[in-house]
Design a protein that fits this description.
Helix content: 55-70%
Strand content: under 5%
Order of helices and strands: HHHHHHHH
Structural class: mainly alpha
Distance between the termini: 62 Å
CATH topology: Tetracycline Repressor, domain 2
Shape: elongated
Number of domains: 1
CATH architecture: Orthogonal Bundle
Number of helices: 8
Radius of gyration: 19 Å
Length: 173
């Protein structure tokens, strides 16, 4: 089972969930393709099984305020979540939400933003990552300018942090 899990994670680095086949996974793992349905029930359940590991990989590299694009781990995780929501009876598996926890922690500790506001910003960032991963040309026939959106997010966080700092300074006087 671990061979199949590891092969799936490796292959998802270069192949979208839609285009990855059970045979490709089994070939990479060096096992017979019938092991996927025997051990996992099928492709969807194998993907659901590795979902927490993919989420953890994305959470490790996630920094909402740095860089001009989403790291490939985050994009691959978003693509997997989208695929699972469309192709698995139970949708996306419930997890500890390490992505949201990491974003919220980053926003509250980096910028001193209230947790309630950080939750809303984190949800917005996750939604943006999903849209960018799934539909890069949805909003227009030009690719989405991820760098501009990331800069806007950073500016919003800086503004909120500055407003909070100014409000805290004012409250102390």
């Amino acid at each position: 089972m671990d061979l199949l899990r590891n092969a799936t994670i490796e292959l998802l680095e270069s192949v979208t969930p839609d285009h990855l086949t059970i045979r490709e996974i089994a070939d990479r793992a060096g096992v017979f393709h019938r092991y996927v349905p025997d051990y996992f029930g099928g492709k969807a359940e194998l993907f659901a099984d590795i979902y927490p590991a993919m989420q953890d990989r994305a959470a490790l590299v996630l920094n909402p305020l740095e860089g001009d694009s989403f790291r490939s781990e985050v994009v691959r995780f978003a693509q997997l979540a989208i695929w699972l929501s469309a192709n698995r009876e139970g949708g996306v598996p419930r997890t500890e939400q390490s992505i949201m926890a990491r974003l919220i922690d980053s926003l509250t500790s980096y910028a001193g933003i209230d947790e309630e506001v950080a939750v809303l910003l984190a949800q917005r960032l996750v939604a943006a990552a999903i849209v960018f991963a799934a539909f890069p040309d949805l909003l227009s026939d030009q690719p989405i300018d991820v760098a501009a959106h990331r800069k806007l997010d950073a500016d919003i966080v800086a503004m909120l942090a500055g407003t909070r700092s100014a409000r805290d300074s004012h409250d102390r006087t």
